[in-house]
Amino acid sequence: MTKEEWERFDRSLKMAEETQAPVPVPQKAVVKELNWPPGVTGALAQAIYHNSARPVQTVAIATALAILAGVCGRGWITYTNAGLNLYLVVVARSGIGKEAIGDTIPTLVLDSVKQGERGASSFFTFKSMASGPGLFKAIADAPYACLLHVDGEFGHNVQFMATDKTGPHATLRQQMTRMYSKSAPNSMAGGIQRAKAEDSIEIEGSASYSIIGDTTPSTFYEALNGKMMADGFLSRFIVIEYHGQRPPLNENRQPLPPRRRALVQQYRWAGGAAVCERPADCRARRGRQAALAGLRPPVRPEPECDRERGAAADVEPGAPQRTQGRHAAGCRR
Known about the structure:
Blueprint: H1 3-19, H2 39-51, H3 57-72, E1 87-91, H4 100-114, E2 124-125, H5 132-141, E3 146-151, H6 154-163, H7 168-179, E4 190-192, E5 201-203, E6 208-215, H8 217-223, H9 226-230, E7 238-241, H10 260-274, H11 279-284, H12 286-293, H13 304-313, H14 326-329
Parallel strand pairs: 1-6, 1-7, 2-3, 3-6
Antiparallel strand pairs: 4-5
Helix pairs in contact: 2-3, 3-4, 5-7, 6-7, 6-8
């Protein structure tokens, strides 16, 4: 190349550098967490947050909702006459702070027992359920047939349920699917009849079973299959994801709860609501319940809810589909 050609080439390079757009610097993703709920629910969630070793707002709110669902699942009804039991799964990376679920709930239970609420522990179980009859017996053994099941590493149980076709975990999945809608005042939980009467299990009237589990994304999502989506098992769960970074260690953990006597009194009242036998009594106390828990009147779901459910029903079994729980459509039932 001649000298003039080199100069033209050099000028063209400079022009290209001047007109080249700057490379955008990747911004750190903003993680949006759940908003603090009002009333006693919010106070309980914040107490759990400040008591956690690694505080995560989303985990604290999910834990508070699970506690109230476990205690008040039979004493509250929605406008569709459904109970308030919840199936919650917290999905987050390992070491992110999910252990607050299994740490703070026993702390609250033991604190309530020390304050005189001897029956507080009857609303909770931390056992691993190995079969459907075992789950049904745990609910039947609860004095008020109102139970919260705290299940750590829930993703492993989902794996067992996905691979077990006719064994004990298949019956566990069947009972979990069935018990979800048995908390309404007019529901009948039923029972399990065996040849020997002493081996039979029966629950008179309704029963409220709630569960909160934690798992890692890979363990949980890899275990799901199309059958779980088609038979309604997965749609019963509210899946709460947390994608944030690992929070720093909380070196100033506050006692749980901060106002022990007030929360214990509210806990006692909530336990009384859980054993409300007649729907008329529950409705008569609904205004006082709403004032205590800080909840707003139930809001009817958007019309899109029924359309999405109708579209999901048209999907052929086994066809690829996007799974949406009832929370995605804004539905309670």
